[in-house]
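Quick start: load a record and inspect it. Here is Outer membrane component of tripartite multidrug resistance system:
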Amino acid sequence: MIKHSKQFILLATCLISACSPIKVDIPESKVDLDNLEFEQTKKAKAIVSLDKWWEDWNDPILTTLIEEGLRENFDIAIAKAKLLESRANANLANADMGPTFGLTANGGFHSTSVSNPIEPALSKVGFNVSDDFQTTGLTGFAGAVASWEPDFFGSKLSDAKAAEYGASAQEEGVHGASLLTSSEIALNYLYYRYYQKKIFYAQRTLSYMQEMRRYLKGRYDVGHVGIELVTDLDSKILAHKARTKTLPAQRDKHLRAIAVLLGKKPQGFTISNSNRDLFEHIPQAPSGQYPISVIERRPDLRAALLNINARASQVASAKADLYPRVKINFLGHNGVVEINSDYLANPSAFGGLFNVGISIPIFTNGRIQRNIEVKDAKLKQAVIEYDQKVLKSLSEVDSVYQAQFAINEQNNLLSSSLVVQNKKTRQLNQMYKLGNKTLDDVLKSKIEASEFKDKILESSLAEAENLIRLYKALGGGW
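Running the structure step on this input writes:
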């Protein structure tokens, strides 16, 4: 017995000393970020905290909506629930590395009555004996069971690491859900305010057109103009009403979308009016942005990097299947049988069992190697996908920056045009007062100015919407 124990200890010592952590060669990224800078960020001058970029808009209502959405949004809640699931799986994988221990016990009671078959014969010869035999007794058994599979070659450790990386990637999913929620609330809020203002401009334009019709109708009544001018204006008024008929529905669609993003019922949901005109106070694009900072901030890229680590751990786990597995089992028990009888003894016993098993994969028909190849291919795929996402993100940031500056310049030109148009309207109004122009000339100029304002509003919406996209591209908002 001593000889076998020494042999086992020697074998175990050799196995453990020969074990080394399984190394996995992760393919290198083909995207070189050394000294890389964005091409379109040089014009950016504003200092913005991307974590809460909405505060830079100085709109208390927008800030309140986004912060409430980050607390109550269902997409974020779902992502958090998935995170709990991922963490539980990671804890389960870690728990699988330790031993298991259990207790077993059972007990019983018995009572037996056996008739004495020779009692009549013995009674005839003068022996007084009992008619039958009575026995009662108790039985009991208790035991302890334990087992453990030492992770000499890191199979379970690799599985646990893969699960932990998966949980961390899911945490980035929570960050991504927060990023999308903040940007979606802001976009819907912008569109809601846009349609509010567009409806106001449309109503003012309609009032100018109706005033012009009254003026032309009066001139027609006295024979100064033909009826075709009135008819033409009637057609334009009807067309204008048709174009603007759907504006309230479009406005309310975004209002309901905000309610859903906040986890509220869309019916009856309202937003207070704001004294601040968002489209006249659009913040400047954030400065100080570099590719490496974007990669470190964006949740999708962070999750992709964690996915590479998870895939590498899965490769290590697959390679560990090439090595022996050791399992240790122990069973200890104590039993007792107690019989209340003059004819039987009361035996009891204690016993134990300890065994160690080793399984060595000698022939698997290539199953282990094929599994390693599958996991390795997924690792290479994860690296390629990461590189692709990095390149797309770098392209997206420069494109959105360039568009932001272009739209801003467009707005400046449109604003300059509006200044000229307003100057023209004032001049025509003065000439009308002097009798050199008719009222319809002044009203036409006012309608043109109102249409200019509508174009500026559309361009301002494009600038504000693109700025939200820029925040998303930079990974801000979580």
